[in-house]
Structure formats: C-alpha cells, structure tokens
Write a structure and sequence with these properties.
By secondary structure, the protein is mainly α. It is built from 20 helices and 3 strands.
C-alpha cells in the first residue's frame, strides 16, 4: 500500500493540488452565499442535491476523483490521444447544431434530461490545448514557417468559429489565448501587434465618428510619409506599404467592423459592447430591438444593468466586506447570474477589498506556479501544454473580473473553479491535473 501511494505521489507538485482544493472550496462557499435561502437546513440542503451549491460540491468531488485517475495515468496517453480527442471535441461541437438547447441566448448547450447538460465549446479548450501542444512538439514542425503557423492557428480557432455560430461569443474569444502559446514557441511579435492594432481600430470605430476616424488615419499616414520622406524617395515600396496600410485600416473601419457587428454578433452582444464603452446602441431594425428586449427581460437583466448591480455589490463590500450571508445585493438577487458569470461580486460584497485581493493573490500564485512548471519541462509537448493552461486560466480570470467591474463587455466567461457549472469546473480540473501528471514525468521526453 505504501509503495502504491509513493508511486502515485512521486514527482507530483502538491502545491498546485492544494491551490485547486482551496479555489474549489472558495467556489462552493461563494455559490452557497449567493443562492442560500434563509431558513433552509444547511446539511439537508447539501445532501438533497437540489440547489446550485450542493451540485457544485458534487462536481468538486467528481473532479477530485477524475484528477486522481489522471495522476494514475501514463503521461504518454495524453500525447498518443491528443489528436483523437481534438477530433472528438470538434464532433461534439458539430452535434450541438442538431441537438442544442437554447439557454440564456446561447445555442451551445446539449441537455440530457433535466439533470445534466454539456457545453462542448467549454470542454473543447482542453482538447485544443492537447492537440496544439502535440502539433508544436512534432519533429517535422518548423514553426518559423508560415505554413506551420497557419496550421496551428486553424487548430486553435476552428472551435472558435463553431462557437460563434452557436452564439457563444465569450468562449470563442477564449481560444485566442492560445496565441500566447504560439508566441512562446516562436510566433513573430508582428502577429500580436497586428491583432492588438485591429482591436484598437475596432474600439476607435465604435467610439469615434467614421469620418473623424478616417481623417485621423489619413493624418497618421501623412505624418509617417513626412517622417520617412528620405527613405520614400530612395524606396517607393515604403510609400506603397504605408498607403496599403491606410487602405486596409479604412476598409476595416468602413466595411469589416460594420459587417461583423451586423451579421456575426447578436444584437444583445453588440449592445453589451456599446455599454462597456459607455455609448448608447440604437438597434438597426425591429428584429434587433425585439431581441434585446427579450434578452433583457423588460430592461432588468441587460448587460448594463448587470454591471451596475455588480459594481454596487463590490463597492458596498468596502475594505473587509459585510461577511458571509450578509450581503444585501447578492442575498436578495439584485445581481443576475451572481452564481455564474458574476460570482466575483459575491466575494467582493461578502469579503470586501481584502477578500478580493486574497483571491487574486491565490490566482497569481497558481499562474506563477504553472509558468514555473512550464519552464522546467524537458518535453516540448509538456511546455506547450503548460503554457496553454496558463493562457486559458489568465484569459478567463482577466475577462471575468474586468467584466464584473465594467472594464470589459459582458460576454459570459466563468471564473475558474469559482463560477457555478459542472462542465467548467470539470474541464479546468482535468486541464490542471493533466499538467500535474506531465510535470511529475518531466524527466521523460514526450515530444
């Protein structure tokens, strides 16, 4: 028995496991604080499995069992099945189209009876991470070549395209976090600069009048030509490049951004983006207006309302908070989705600035530990996978917290291990425990 225990624990980074345990415990406690009804018997409530916090506790236990099995698994299993699991994930996402259930505006959920539902777009993050790590670790992959970069991009973004088609914008954005992994493995910084510039141009298009923005872009192009006038005289290619960039930016501003907002995003998603930048959104037609009205349920649960109530809850927590089960905003359900997307406001109101910073500190320790683990791997596969875990966790954390305090649009992204949801908790748990297993076998070269 002792030999078996030693075999299981050999090389395991228990600090990661303990952080997982603490975060899951905070999650169950936070969901309990957000959904507990006064007068209920606490013990019976947990045992009955009829409420969110008892379900989350069950998911927590189930995640621990799965994690234990992962620690008993040979690391080579994950490299051998990476592509097969990716194909399985894509198949699950394709099955969503004929078998989905519409929940809160999204069509990305498959429901099995009344007790269980699955969101393949959430689960597929794990499969993408494995498949991308597998591709980047192949001996014949030369990531300095454009072809390899395009293949890696397709692996990462194929589920994002399917997710957008299922009206799940938040999870679609998560897949862009895998560009951090590609950047670590040699993706040129120019690609990230172009992506960031595109995001800035989109925001500028929404904030500024289109003619004013066109004039600004023209002024920037003219200034660049003036500064580089000597180089332009010697090399006309520079002038063609600047003019080409100008045409591209104006084209994006005039045609690409309007097309995305009119034909890709849903009307309520567009409204949430406008709410985040502090501008009013005027629906383009009656259909869009009706969609926003249905989503907001009479104006009480639109994205702007959610954020306002969330900020009130966090602000009312003050320095040390009101205490467990003493928050008025969350106890009386003023904040919609306070057990899922807006769970952070429950922590902010109950435990204040200090409690929120303690939670951020725990996440910081987790991320730093994952990066440390990534950098000590001998295997390219393990390193890429570890950076994928860190990237996904960081993206979820940053967007969720920024969303609850009004710095990002409401896009429905969970807080890892804290937000209510079986698919989310199990997926994050599997991702983390696979990392622990790979790290325990870091002396092996997995490629």
């Amino acid at each position: 028995m002792n030999q078996k225990n030693a075999a299981i624990s050999k090389g395991v980074d228990w600090s990661i496991v303990w952080i997982w345990f603490v975060l899951c415990g905070i999650g169950v406690t936070s969901i309990f604080a957000a959904t507990y009804h006064e007068g209920d018997n606490i013990f019976q409530s947990f045992v009955s499995l009829k409420n969110d916090y008892s379900h989350q506790l069950l998911f927590f236990i189930f995640g621990g069992i799965i994690g234990t099995f992962i620690l008993l698994t040979d690391s080579k299993f994950f490299t051998a099945t990476a592509n097969l699991l990716y194909a399985f994930g894509i198949l699950l996402m394709l099955l969503v189209f004929p078998f989905h259930t519409r929940v809160m505006g999204t069509e990305s959920i498959i429901r099995f009876g009344n007790a269980f539902q699955l969101q393949p777009a959430d689960l597929c993050k794990l499969f993408v991470n494995l498949s991308l790590a597998k591709y980047l670790s192949r001996v014949d992959t030369d990531f300095s070549k454009t072809r390899s970069q395009l293949i890696a991009t397709c692996i990462a973004l194929a589920p994002a395209v399917l997710s957008v088609m299922q009206h799940e914008l938040g999870l679609a954005l998560v897949y862009f976090s895998f560009f951090i992994v590609m950047f670590r493995e040699g993706l040129p910084a120019n690609v990230l600069i172009i992506g960031f510039s595109f995001a800035v141009l989109v925001v500028a298009t929404l904030v500024l009048d289109k003619n004013v923005l066109a004039l600004i872009l023209t002024g920037i192009a003219g200034l660049a030509i003036y500064i580089l006038r000597r180089q332009v005289k010697r090399n006309r290619g520079i002038l063609i490049f600047i003019v080409g960039i100008w045409f591209t930016c104006v084209g994006i501003q005039r045609f690409v951004v309007p097309f995305i907002f009119d034909h890709v995003f849903q009307a309520y998603q567009v409204k949430r983006i406008y709410d985040a930048i502090g501008k009013d959104y005027v629906p383009k037609d009656e259909k869009a207006a009706l969609e926003i009205e249905q989503k907001s349920k009479g104006g009480k649960k639109d994205g702007n309302y959610n954020v306002k109530q969330s900020k009130i809850a966090i602000g009312s927590g003050g320095l040390i908070g009101k205490g467990l089960l003493k928050g008025t905003q969350t106890r009386y359900a003023f904040v919609p989705e306070q057990a899922t997307d807006f769970i952070f406001c429950t922590i902010g109101e109950g435990f204040g600035f200090v409690g929120s910073m303690v939670l951020m500190g725990i996440y910081f320790l987790l991320l730093m530990r994952i990066v440390t683990i990534a950098e000590r791997q001998r295997s390219v596969f393990s390193r890429c996978y570890a950076y994928g875990v860190a990237s996904v966790f960081f993206f979820h954390l940053a967007v969720n917290v920024c969303m609850t305090i009004g710095l990002a649009p409401v896009v429905g992204i969970s807080l890892p291990f804290i937000s209510y949801g079986g698919t989310s908790l199990i997926t994050f748990t599997i991702m983390l425990f696979i990392l622990v297993r790979l790290d325990a076998d870091r002396q092996m070269v997995l490629r």
